[in-house]
Amino acid sequence: MSILNHPAISKAYFFPQAIRCNEAIEVDIGEATLRCLNYRPNPELPTLVHFHGNGESVAHYVRGGFPPLFSEELCGINVLMIEYRGYGGSTGEVELVSMLADGQSVLQQLGIDPAKSIACGRSVGSLYAIELAHRCPSLAGLVIDSGIADIRERFLAYPQIRQTLEKFENTEVESDIRKHFDHPEKMRSYKGPLLLLHTQNDGIIDSSHAERLYDWAGTTNKELRIYADGNHNTIFPQNYRDMLFSIRLLCQAAFPNARWKHFNGRSNSRAAPSGVRVRQTSASGR
Question: What is the pTM of this model?
Answer without folding.
Answer: 0.96
